[in-house]
Amino acid sequence: MAKLVSGTYGEALFDLALENKSLDIIEEEIKAVKEVFKENTELIKFLNHPKITKEEKVAFIENIFKGRVSDDVTGFLVIIIKKGRYDEILEIFDYFLAKVREHKKIGVAYVTSALELSAQEQEKIENKLLATTKYVQFEMNYKVDATILGGLIIRIGDRVVDSSLKSKLTTLSKNLFKIQLG
What does the alpha-carbon distance between residue 102 and residue 138 come to, in Å, rounded to a whole number? Predict the structure, then answer.
């Protein structure tokens, strides 16, 4: 259900931003608002408090954000509160930001390697991904995991390319077990 809610609201904000030709501005403001919510966990607790009325919550949010972000973003936050969807607010932001990246053809790649990659190696990986995908830019996320022994695991969305030594050894091991000795 949360996916449906975040998609509905995120899509609405995206459409509004496109319609008003303010996609870049709203993207930056949503990133900033998301950080405020992530850094201030008390804010979510406040919004979830059952004894605080929606009107008080709306006034509080307007007090924090009005004049600091556009009226579109402030109004959007007010709608989320009035509809009682503050539990999904971070998911809504994530959906919106993913939709913006998709629109701008920016991919998000997660690369896992057994050893720390040099800047040159990282650049080669990014260039290879740019050459083999529809994306014009990537947000690269690198992680070191010694348990993969060697090679790389690259994840973009729901696609995974696993060229790790661990994976190859596991496959080899399974194939060897399948061989029947006569």
Answer: 11
